[in-house]
Amino acid sequence: MNAIIRDDHPTPRRVLHALRGLPTSDGAGVRLTRVIGTSQLPDLDPFLMLDEFGTDRPEDYIAGFPDHPHRGFETVTYMLDGRMRHRDNHGNEGVLVPGSVQWMTAGRGIVHSEMPEQVEGRMRGFQLWINLPARDKMTAPRYQEYAPDAIPVARPAEGVVLKVIAGEAGGTRGPIAQPATDPLYVDVHLAAGAGTTLDVPAGHRAFAYVYDGAIRVAGERVEAGVLAILGDGDTLDLASTGPNGVSRAIVVAGRPLNEPVARMGPFVMNTKAEIYQAVADYQAGRF
Ligand code: CO
């Protein structure tokens, strides 16, 4: 874990564990797969939760996520298919469309809803929760929201497409700024026969989650629906596994916070007392 990293010899990251998410439901009955934030993987510092939602059945998503609070961390929504309207108690409102990203810093508190802006068709995407350090938990709420054409794309080799949401990949830098965790978030598409090596900052906690097809992650075949938790190092090798189709994965990394985590539903703080304060503030309408 704490290997000496030499500048001139990259250390490839390896797969420490591979595991599947668990089917669950959240909000007013949205069916989804929880990959991080389960009993088998409560968190992966600084990541608190990863959900994949993906369905063609309106009854699985139509009830959406009515008004609910957040305090103490960030939520990142990356839409693949479908449209979702968000609205909060500070007057912010918008519609997430396929390929768009919403990076929301809840900070000291927001109350918002996330509701489907469609009554039929496919709804697919990810929501990732990233923790904030103690010094930033009570910061003012903030949005970093990007339309699909504002997410830069790198094509470092034939058959390789990197959509760079945060951090740097293929010589391209994503638009998100978050110094606390210095995140990397890349949507990787590999055509048959294609492969690439990503730089992943040493010391960051990192994972790859394959969501279409299958990808050889650090030499190991990882299928859609499987999370590969990566060991330390400063590069990650990705390659297609077979002759057919395009495979896709998100690769995410962030600097661990190494702080105590006190968590109750949508509140993530450092101590129990801060959680009780969050509940009291929310109930008193102070969000
Ligand atoms: Co929310």
Walk me through the topology.
Layout (H helix, E strand, L loop, with lengths): L14 E6 L1 E5 L3 E7 L10 E9 L9 E6 L2 E9 L2 E5 L4 E4 L4 E5 L4 E7 L6 E9 L10 E5 L6 E2 L5 E7 L1 E2 L2 E2 L10 E7 L4 E5 L5 E8 L1 E4 L2 E4 L2 E5 L4 E6 L6 E8 L7 E3 L2 E3 L2 H12 L4
CATH superfamily: Jelly Rolls
**Poorly predicted tracts of residues:** none
Biggest sheet record: 7 strands, antiparallel
State which percent range the strand residues make up: over 45%
What gap, in angstroms, lies between the N and C termini?
A: 40 Å
Q: Helix and strand succession?
A: EEEEEEEEEEEEEEEEEEEEEEEEEEH
Which class do the helix and strand fractions yield?
mainly beta
Number of helices: 1
CATH class, please? Answer: Mainly Beta
CATH fold assignment: Jelly Rolls
- CATH architecture identity: Sandwich
What is the helix content?
under 10%
The residue-averaged pLDDT reads: 95
Based on CA atoms alone, the radius of gyration comes out at 18 Å
General form: globular
Give a count of the beta strands, DSSP E runs of length 2 or more: 26
Count of folded domains: 1
Strand order, main sheet: write it out: 1-22-19-24-17-14-13
